Amino acid sequence: MVFIPWLAVAQTGERYFSLQEAIDYALVHNQNILNAQLDVEAAEGVVKENIATGFPQVNISVDLADNFELPTSFLPSEFFPGAPPGEQVPIQFGTKYSGNATLSATQMVFDGVFFVGLEAARTYQQLSTKEHIKTKIDVVEAVSKAYYNVLVNKLTLELVEKNYGRLDTLLNETKIMYANGFAERIDVNRVQVQFNNIRVNRQNSRKLLVIAEALLKFQMGLPVDEPIVLTDELSLDMFAETGKDDFSYDHRIEYSILQTRERLALLDIKRTKVEYLPKLDLYANAGGIAGTGLAGNLFNIGNEWFTFGVVGLRLSIPVFDGLRKHYTLQQKKAKLSQVYNSYDLLKNSIDLELQQAKVVYTNSVDYMNVQLENMKLSEEVYKVTKAKYQQGVGSNIEVINADADYKEAQTKFFQALYEALVAKVNYDKALGKLNF
């Protein structure tokens, strides 16, 4: 008997999640995060690709040719005894079959573009990592709001179920009073209307809860048909005041991303400037050549092939490119100026967002507290009105109106509660305090 509850949970296949557990699951399974992680891996590949260009580059080439018609060359007639002087004599020379096998190696000694490009690739990798972090923050925001939405819808449904039971009891009591002559038919009809409305409201609340859970599972990257149970509970302690004293622009990932973009723009300018510098490469070639009248002799490596080899340094000095690099620098400097202008724009945007989030959060919490008080007062009014009606000193219409006011106060409170939770998430994000 001890294992019966455990077996019941195992059979239903339910998974339990706190808010942090839901966030942790989403950080691993959310499709947007998975794609962002692939971007990071691709950036790592870019860095390794740039590093690879600095290693020795080795190639092997083999060329086997059938010269089915030898090319014609022209030599002065003086090379041929008895030929008329001053003329060109056509002559064909060469072998029908020829071969060439070469092993070539090149090692970069100095290339300013390589070193700047390598630094830029690493900076790009940092940018991809920061974009990955930004995606995570967006997912944390979406999962938090969806999680709170499920909790609020769950509380709403629980309250609707209580209202349903309360109106069901009131309807039965009113019918009994009508049967005993202590109430009129219209009293029963009034309660019946309210009961019909709450019955539809209960059905809608159940469907909304299912949709809210599906949205949460979607944000988490969890199959929408997999049952889950949320373990966190809502509390008014969650709305403790969040200070702004420790805020810094560095807390915002958008600001850090812009700093990285500035670094990339500077490196892009530096890369163009180093194109003015010379390039120095070390190279070496070794191989063999063959020429024969028989195709089979091409594979007679020992007798028909003659080796060769060369090693050297190649210096390339740029002299004039039609001012191409000059105009390229103009374009890149203009883009860097745009980045600098973006700093002021981003700071102003963050300041405005922070101010708005603070005001919305404060107002939402105040409004929620007012609606909570109104709900409590409406409940008390309903209880007193119902007691007076049962004692015969009140009217049925007063009970109906008090019930309607109580349900309206409940609806407003839960709407205000969710708006306050969303405002809290937005304010934490504006402060750069959404943790994961």
Structure description:
The structure is a single chain. This protein is α+β, with helices and mostly antiparallel strands. It folds into 2 domains: 12-53 and 114-277 and 323-431, Outer membrane efflux proteins (OEP), CATH 1.20.1600.10; 57-110 and 278-317, Single Sheet (Outer membrane efflux proteins (OEP)). It has helices spanning 4-12, 19-29, 31-52, 112-179, 185-220, 253-273, 301-304, 324-390, 396-431, and strands at residues 15-17, 57-66, 72-76, 88-92, 97-110, 228-230, 279-292, 305-316. The chain is elongated.
Q: How do the strands and helices of this protein lay out in sequence?
A:
Blueprint: H1 4-12, E1 15-17, H2 19-29, H3 31-52, E2 57-66, E3 72-76, E4 88-92, E5 97-110, H4 112-179, H5 185-220, E6 228-230, H6 253-273, E7 279-292, H7 301-304, E8 305-316, H8 324-390, H9 396-431
Parallel strand pairs: 1-6
Antiparallel strand pairs: 2-5, 3-4, 5-7, 7-8
Helix pairs in contact: 2-4, 3-4, 4-5, 4-6, 4-9, 5-9, 6-8, 8-9
Q: What is the number of strand segments?
A: 8
Would you give the CATH topology of the largest domain?
Outer membrane efflux proteins (OEP)
Structural class: alpha+beta
How large a portion of the residues is in β-strands, by DSSP E? 15-25%
Give the CA-based shape. Answer: elongated
Please work out how many helical segments DSSP would assign: 9
Query: What gap, in angstroms, lies between the N and C termini?
Result: 40 Å
Could you estimate the helical fraction of the residues in percent?
Answer: 55-70%
| Rg result | 41 Å
Low-confidence stretches: 1-11
Number of domains: 2
CATH superfamily of the largest domain: Outer membrane efflux proteins (OEP)
- The CATH architecture of the largest domain: Up-down Bundle
What is the average per-residue confidence, as pLDDT, rounded to a whole number?
88
Top-tier CATH class of the largest domain:
Mainly Alpha
Strand line-up across the major sheet:
2-5-7-8
The main pleated sheet reads as:
4 strands, antiparallel
Order of helices and strands: HEHHEEEEHHEHEHEHH
